Amino acid sequence: MRMVVPMSTQDDYFSFLPFAWIGEIMMVFSCGLTAGFRVNFYEEPETVWRDLREVGPTIMFGPPRIWRDIVSQIQVKIADSGYLRRRLYEKALALGLKKVDTEFKGYNPPFLTKLSHKIMYWLVFRPILDKVGLKRLRHAYTGGAQVSVDDFRYLRALGVNIKQIYGQTEISGISCLHRDGDVDPWTSGKPLPGTVIAITKDGEIISKSRAVMKGYYDRPESQDVRNGWLFSGDFGMVDSKGHLICIDRMSDIIVLSNGTRVPPQHLENRLKFSPYIREAMILDHGRPYVTAILNIHPENVGKWAEDNNIPYTGYVDLSQKKEVYDLVEDIIKEVNKNLTQNMRIRKFTILYKEFHPDDDEITRTRKLRRRLIREKYKPVIDALYSDSGHVSFLGEVRYEDGRRDTINVTMYIREVT
């Protein structure tokens, strides 16, 4: 990675991800020790965002969920600002998006566009980035899953030099990444020097390099490595520029009863661009249409409810408010406008709790454990494909003080009209 990314002893890296993740090991130990940059750690899990602002790193690596949270923080701050400030921000953002979209197409933006964006960066964007700790950031990386194109465009429009990484633990973490001046929001960049990427006839991404593992400990029957090629289990393609496009896990592609193939991550990322939706899971194999189980963002939706004089007692109560369902339905309608008829979300429900790593519903890097969620919430999923307008579910809730309780909750099923 250091062969294509300039790093030095003058850089600051902010480490806040678990060392069980290969990406953090690569950044902190491999890059940190060879480049000699300063590694900063958070004080407590509850102080991560405050510590990020205090450190102001120059290099940062995080999964898409982290960048989504940062985008959400910015959007909420802007929504709370005055009319003139919002109007200036909207004009600056439109200019920024115009600039980066031109660059994504491989063209050099006009001098006046670049100059105007530079002015807006210092006048509008830099103070915003300072509020979330990104003012000094030179290199921002995302990996572990494909980041939302909307989030990617948004951050680059604000002046954040975010780039996508693709890799696996089995190939020592990183095999592809964007280079400065060659960034595409739909791809994961080109292979690192010494790495070869290919696509099988079934569309599976395979890779070969000196970094590929020899095999799994105590699993000699594994076929993930064959003739030096690592079979990823990811569905993708290589474009005309040599960039890798990772579409989704092959096992996660949804095939509806009419044969329509639906990549769930694409739809989920579009939904999560809203500051009010924290997590989404698209459903379901062999069914006649697409549905979704959603988590609302507690802070953002809570503030929205307060601003609109909607009383609530807690997350469970807030998640099932009619007004919140109306809010989420409007978001889904906007997403559906850019989807083909068969891929549009027909029904949804808002889960009474957030997906949580301690409940094995998501990983520590915010990847959905889809099989477990399907098993755990099977009655909810079945209700999404019935004529019922609600479903009763006996589930567990976790309180801020660590206590757990079992409750019988009624969740509503909303059809998107």
Automatic annotation (TrEMBL):
Which terms in the GO cellular component ontology are assigned?
Answer: membrane
Q: Which UniProt keywords apply?
A: ATP-binding, Membrane, Nucleotide-binding, Transmembrane, Transmembrane helix
UniProt protein name: AMP-dependent synthetase/ligase domain-containing protein
Describe the location of the AMP-dependent synthetase/ligase domain by residue ranges: 7-217
- Entry keyword Ligase: no
**Record Pfam families:** AMP-binding, AMP-binding_C_3
Organism lineage string: Archaea, Nitrososphaerota, Candidatus Caldarchaeales, Candidatus Caldarchaeaceae, Candidatus Caldarchaeum
- Source domain of life: Archaea
Q: Name one GO molecular function term.
A: ATP binding
Signal peptide location in the record? none
Keyword Protein biosynthesis: yes or no? no
Residue intervals passing through the bilayer: 20-41
